[in-house]
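quick one
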Amino acid sequence: MNAVPAAVIILAAGEGTRMKSSTPKVLHRIGGLSLVGHAIRAARETQAQFVEVVVRHEREQVVEFCTGFDPDLVVADQDEVRGTGRAVECGLDALPADLEGTVLVTYGDVPLLSGETLRDLVAAHAASGSVASVVTAHVPNPTGYGRIVRASDGGVERIVEQKDAAEHELAITEINSGIYAFDAAVLREALGQVGTANAQGEKYLTDVVEIASRAGHRVSAHVIDDLWQTEGVNDRVQLAALGKVLNQRICERHMRNGVTIVDPATTWIDTDVSIGQDTTILPFTELLGATSIGAGASIGPLVSLVDTEVGDGAKVVRAECVLAEIGAEASVGPFSYLRPGTVLGAKGKIGGFVETKNADIGPGAKVPHLTYAGDVTIGEGANIGAGTIFANYDGIAKHHTTIGKHSFIGSDTVIVAPVDVGDGAYVAAGSALTKDVEPGEIAVARGQQRNVDGWVARARAGTKTDAAARAAREAGARHTDSSATGGEASAQ
Ligand code: UD1
Ligand code: CA
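structure w/ uridine-diphosphate-N-acetylglucosamine:
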């Protein structure tokens, strides 16, 4: 059955004091998305014409997030009358007065409820011909929840809140999840009759059930087994518990799609991350935000990727990468820090103890060891020697450096930006480069080597060093200097 509800009303006006937070409860996040964001997504999966949030507490912050997340959302303000019934009433008031059909009610703090469950609810509601269907669950410990009082025909007669329940009602273990499907007209009509004569002095949405069933309408229970889907977040202990369950579900989804996750318990993957088939995720790895990973890649151990794109067959080990792009079959790590604007070409390499920022590193280019590369374009196949520093900041402004294709920067070079090194050029190890280098040139920007004969004998007479030098000379071994000008070799 493909029934579509007219509206989904998401209640998010409550206070959430137990979070002890300056952030509104529904804006706390699990799986990289706020609680209300999860609720909005599930609601959208029903294809409902209207999706609405009801707000009051910390209204501005909640509305700002919700409308940014989903610009088509309807926002309704709850007034000073308290209770879930009043919240829904205010919600209906902000929707077209002639709205007909099925209205779903969900909570902004119940993040694991799936769109699929909502669609099942709508289908069951339509099939049963009920005016109201309540999602219920049988739980071992029903304390705190509204209890479902069944009618003799198996329908629902009423829902009694914990604080209003008699002894025998407290023994009921079927609970109200707070998620419902209603016929819009019946809901509107019944809410008009709901009072506040209860233990909390609130307008209870649950009273609609009793009003409807007394009027002779059918009210059904839609029992679900997956209890996590009805769990709300009231404090940070529950936030962590639900976050862990969500993560486990996300990991399972990827594993079923052909991703190897060696240790799901230490792998944290946000809701929106995509991972290709035959990729392996090693322990202690976080894949966050809008990260996407290709097929046949290997990520981890100890990798954090935030909003990072990784190509097919790439390998990332012990690295922190933020807003970076890592090409196909490229390799990163161990101990690398890729900051925003890092683009590593296919088969390129960013090795150990390398930090990059706004660095466009061409295909097959290598930055293998101990380098800072900021504001730089490195051409295809270039090799940056160990310990090279791109000095991009002069204390006032940042400057850009370009290294040409297949060029070779000797180890321990500092490149004082802005500098252009052409294609196919060399820079001698230990250079402090301040001027451009043309294609085919070698730049040597350091002091010449000078050997002073007999210095040890004069300045360090009588030391072990002096004795060693004498012995070596006496043995006829001539101390030869390797070279006065060479040394272009890079560490590999
Ligand atoms: C409610 C139900 C209870 C059910 C439980 C499931 C009622 C009277 N009781 O109880 O039967 O077992 O949920 O979790 O409905 N909210 C508003 N405006 C308000 C009050 C609440 O928008 O004035 C929102 C809250 O932000 C929250 C949701 O409604 O998202 C539920 O509110 P909460 O106070 O947690 O309801 P419970 O008392 O737990
Ligand atoms: Ca609650």
